[in-house]
Amino acid sequence: MKIIPLHDRVLVKRLEETTKTAGGIIIPDTAKEKPSEGLVEAIGNGFRAEDGKIVPMNVKVGDKVLFGKWSGSEIKVNGEERLIIKEADILAIVEE
């Protein structure tokens, strides 16, 4: 199954956080929070401005992004969890 987001929505795959702290303590799955960092897998074509023109997206497929903790809607794609969020809920693009 292929998901193509509409308008200004973005399909994001959450990136797993490390399970060990800097001091070497292993964090159990029950104590971990959902990561707020992800990889953009698909984007919509942008949102329609008041004058009717389509404003293109600032993110692109392959970007590593930070997003709000409670942002978006969780869905399952081919048995794997994904997140659909509005571009406005993306806080930053991570460059390495």
Tell me the strand order in the biggest sheet.
Answer: 6-7-1-2-5-8
Q: What is Rg?
A: 15 Å
Strand content: 35-45%
Number of helices: 0
Give the structural class.
mainly beta
The helicity comes to under 10%
Report on the architecture of this protein.
This protein has a single domain (9-94), classed as 10 Kd Chaperonin, Protein Cpn10, Chain O (Roll), CATH 2.30.33.40. A hairpin with a 2-residue loop joins strand 6 (73-77) and strand 7 (80-86). The strands form two sheets. The chain has a six-stranded antiparallel β-sheet, with no helix packed on it. It has a two-stranded antiparallel sheet with strand order 3-4. The protein is built from no helices and eight strands. The protein has strands at 9-14, 37-43, 47-48, 54-55, 64-67, 73-77, 80-86, 90-94. The chain is mostly beta strands. Helix content is 0%, strand content 40%.
Descriptive terms for the model:
96 residues; 10 Kd Chaperonin, Protein Cpn10, Chain O; two-stranded antiparallel ribbon; 8 strands; 40% strand
Give me a quick take on this structure:
This protein has strands at residues 9-14, 37-43, 47-48, 54-55, 64-67, 73-77, 80-86, 90-94. With 96 residues, it is mainly β.
Spell out the blueprint of helices and strands:
Layout: E1 9-14, E2 37-43, E3 47-48, E4 54-55, E5 64-67, E6 73-77, E7 80-86, E8 90-94
Antiparallel strand pairs: 1-2, 1-7, 2-5, 3-4, 5-8, 6-7
